[in-house]
Every structure is written in C-alpha cells, then in structure tokens.
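Milestone M4 deliverable, item 7.
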Amino acid sequence: IIIIIIMASLLRGKSGAGQQQQHGRQPSEQEAMHLRIKAQFDQAIVRQLLEQATDECFKTCCEPNGHSSSALSGGEKECLTRCLDKFVSAHGSVYQSFVSNVQEIERKRDKQMQQKQ
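Output delivered:
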C-alpha cells in the first residue's frame, strides 16, 4: 500500500492535480471530467507499475530459491523489500527526469513563441 501511495504521489506531483484550489474556483464540468479521466489514467499506471514490480521482484527474490513452501522466508521478504524500494526509486527518478525534460522543452518553446511576437 505504501508503494502505491508513493507511486501515485510521484505521478501527481507534477501533473497539475488540485488545480481548482490553485485558481480559487470550482472546475467546469469539462475540467472535472478531465480530472476524473486523469485520475483513472494515473491509477492504471500505478496498477501497471505495481504488477511489473511484483513480477520482477518475485522472479528475482523467490523463483531462484525454488519457493518450496507457501510462506515467504525472512530472506525472501528482505529481498522483496529491497527490490520494491529500488523499483520505486528508479521509476521515480526516471519520471522526475522526464518531467524536467518536458518542462525545459516547454520553456524553450514558450521563449521562441515570445520572440516571434
């Protein structure tokens, strides 16, 4: 659950969620629909990342051991925790880098548009 919260906060950190509070007004019907769609999209991404992390970390931490019992061993739990932490950290870094690059491209585009005017 903590991983989902972290991933969701990373996704929403630069996405413009909460715009209605920033502008001091309620969103229009179209804006509200856009925010609902964005929230559903964010949830789908988080779900996909969680599934991917679970698959990858299980393969790394549990399958090499043969996983002969239905319970996770202490070593497997520790490995899964480290693996998921690294997965979230790596995806967070990639996402932040992506957002920074997009913002830089937008700044350059805006500057070029202003120079043309």
